[in-house]
From TrEMBL:
Its EC number is 6.3.2.-. Mn(2+) 2 binds at residues 422, 424. It is an enzyme of class 6 (ligase). It comes from the Bacteria. Mn(2+) 1 binds at residues 410, 422. HAMAP family: RimK. In the C-terminal section; belongs to the RimK family. Belongs to the RimK family. Its cofactor is Mn(2+); Mg(2+). Mg(2+) 1 binds at residues 410, 422. The keyword Oxidoreductase does not apply. The gene is rimK. This is Probable alpha-L-glutamate ligase.
Length: 467
């Protein structure tokens, strides 16, 4: 008997997800990925704990962000998925039917933000049936579809609702917290300041919650983390728990952790070929002299890995002073690094404020006389400055490498171009707003709205209407 013709797939294919109301979507076929993934820019869980569902927004055409479709589906699982760049993300998993080349079958999909990807869907090997063959050198072995299929869909009016926002901070009365509260309330949102240290959690349940003052907190649409350096580890655990509840976190726990660990931050920035002052690190006291030489020799800056606001940052002007400092820090069992001192910066640096991969403001900070640290908390002064294109690109790329949606990127201006000094995941607002006269807090809330948008009304599947 002659063999039936195999069902061939190329490395990219058009398909439909009819139960989700998606008549056409272009997918990348990736046999290296076990589970398929679908773009979801706004994810909102709902329904009872024993029968959870998820509602999400998708823009199926990467070149037409105005085309938006709201989908909903039952949740079959929540699963840790590690992407090709090594980042692990807890994702919702749904099951739905796929249609391709006249065939229809059920597949599982994880939901994740693929906004920066060329394909809104990844078609993994778990969705490939036994009689299918993938030709990695061919495209579109099955019939092509077109985004014109969405032209006949009815327009949906958005459902407007205020966001419920948690401001995670131990200092609700400081300038930054107050400005964020004012900006959120001015735009009609409900915002609550929550003391990070007073949060507690029950780990291991299928219904994640954060408890506070004897009761479970409600579900928040978004969380703005302002986690102090002294409570970083516990604060990140609390933030991860908020993420598990389905809240959108302005900066993720992993991105904050990367930025707070100065050694890791420098390694990630260096891997991305972002220019920085030469930095050296060693654990053994036998390497002190070589460590200073690796940083370019005296003068050098000796910096605690957990330093903030200029605290734990010391300038050693001579080799002897540098050796004494490193020995003293080691004697305290402190983690530190040794960094090149960029003398031409002359006690000045630039703070570029990044929101959503865009530099929204910048200020030049000048250290007070006799001081090399330009931090405003150390008596420095600030003035507005217009950045060069190279400086803006460097700031944006540094925030992106660390995964920060909101960041204060400190740059040194040198003849060879900008050098990244540090990336702050909880930048203060007082200095930048005073120097630039811009409503930075309002821009942060506006960005939050763009990530947690009010959803369109959910269109019922045709099969449900017929019932």
């Amino acid at each position: 008997m002659p063999h039936s013709k195999p069902f061939e797939l190329g490395w990219e294919e058009w398909l439909a997800l009819p139960d989700l109301g998606l008549p056409a979507i272009k997918a990348k076929v990736d046999t290296g990925a076990r589970t398929s993934a679908l773009h979801a820019s706004v994810i909102e869980p709902f329904g009872p704990a024993d029968a959870p569902q998820v509602r999400f927004l998708i823009q199926p055409d990467p070149n037409n962000p105005a085309l938006e479709v709201t989908c909903s589906a039952p949740v079959v699982d929540r699963r840790d998925v590690t992407s090709s760049n090594g980042e692990t993300e807890l994702r919702y998993v749904i099951q739905t039917d796929v249609e391709m080349g006249g065939r229809r079958w059920p597949i599982q999909l994880t939901l994740t933000n693929r906004e920066s990807m060329s394909y809104r869907m990844l078609f993994g090997r778990g969705a490939i049936q036994p009689d299918m063959i993938v030709d990695a050198n061919a495209s579109f072995r099955q019939p092509k579809l077109d985004f014109a299929a969405y032209a006949g869909l009815p327009k949906k009016r958005p459902v407007k609702r205020p966001l419920r926002i948690a401001l995670l901070t131990r200092e609700p009365k400081n300038y930054s917290s107050q400005r964020l509260i004012e900006a959120a309330q001015a735009r009609g949102h409900v915002i609550e300041a929550i003391d990070t240290a007073r949060c507690y959690m029950q780990i291991g349940t299928t219904h994640p919650q954060v408890h506070y003052d004897g009761k479970a907190l409600p579900r928040y649409d978004a969380v703005i983390p302002r986690i102090g350096a002294g409570i970083t580890d516990y604060g990140l655990a609390v933030l991860r728990q908020f993420t598990n509840t389905g809240a959108f976190c302005l900066n993720s726990a992993s991105s904050i952790g990367h930025s707070r660990d100065k050694l890791m931050a420098h390694q990630l920035l260096a891997r991305a070929k972002i220019d920085m002052p030469v930095t050296a690190f060693a654990h053994s006291p036998k390497d002190t002299k070589d460590l200073i030489s690796l940083a370019g020799g005296a003068p050098v800056v000796v910096k605690l890995l957990s330093s903030t606001q200029g605290k734990g940052v010391v300038l050693a002007e001579t080799r002897k002073a540098a050796e004494s400092l490193t020995d003293a820090f080691r004697g305290l069992d402190a983690n530190f690094l040794v960094q090149e001192f960029v003398e031409e910066a002359a006690g000045t640096d630039v703070r570029a404020f990044v929101i959503g991969n865009k530099v929204v403001g910048a200020m030049k900070r000048q250290a007070q006389k006799g001081e090399f640290r330009s931090n405003l908390h150390r008596g420095g002064t600030a003035s507005t400055i217009k950045l060069t294109r190279q400086e803006r690109d460097t700031a944006r790329e540094a925030a992106k490498v660390l995964g920060l949606r909101v960041a204060g990127v400190d740059l040194l201006q040198t003849e060879k171009g900008p050098k990244v000094l540090e990336v702050n995941s909880s930048p203060g607002l007082e200095g930048i707003e005073s120097a630039t006269s811009k409503d930075i807090a309002g821009l942060i809330i506006e960005h939050l709205e763009s990530q947690v948008r009010p959803l369109a009304r959910v269109r019922e599947p045709a099969s449900r209407k017929r019932r």
